[in-house]
Amino acid sequence: MSSSPFAPLLPGVPKASGKSASADGLLPVMPVPKDAPRPFERHPKHGSIAAKWTYRDAAGEVLGYACRFDRADGGKTYQPLTLFREDATGALKWKWKAWLDPRPLYGLDRLAARPTAPVVLCEGEKAADAIGELVPEYVGVTSPNGSKSAGKADWTALRGRNVVIWPDADTPGREYADAAARLILASGAASVALIEPPANAPEGWDAADALAEAWPQVRVLGLVAGARPLVRPEAASPSPKAPAASSEPATGESGKRGPGRPPWHDTLLALTADFELWHTPKKMTFASVPMPEGHRENWRLSSEAFSRHLSLKAFEDTGRIPSKAAIEETVRILEAKAIAYGPCRKEWLRVGQQGGNLYLDLGCDRWHAVEIAPGKTPRILESHNLPFVRPEGMLALPVPEFGSERGVEELRQFVNVSTETDFHLIVAWVLGAMRYASEYPLLILNGEQGTGKSTLSRILRSIFDPHAAEILAPPKEDLELFVLAQHTHLVVFDNLSKIEGWMSDGLCILATGGAKASRAMYTNDGLSILEAKRPVILNGIPSLADRPDLAQRSITVRLRPVPEEERITSEEIQRRWEDAAPRILGTFLEALSTGLKTVEDVKLDKLPRMAGFARFVVAAAPGLGLDGAALCDAYLANQNELADVAFDNSPVAVAVLAMMESVPGGEWIGTATQLLDALSHADVTTERTRNSFGWPKTPQLLGTQMVRAAPALRKRGIDARQRKSGNIVWEIRKA
Question: Which branch of life, at top level (predicted)?
Answer without folding.
Answer: Bacteria
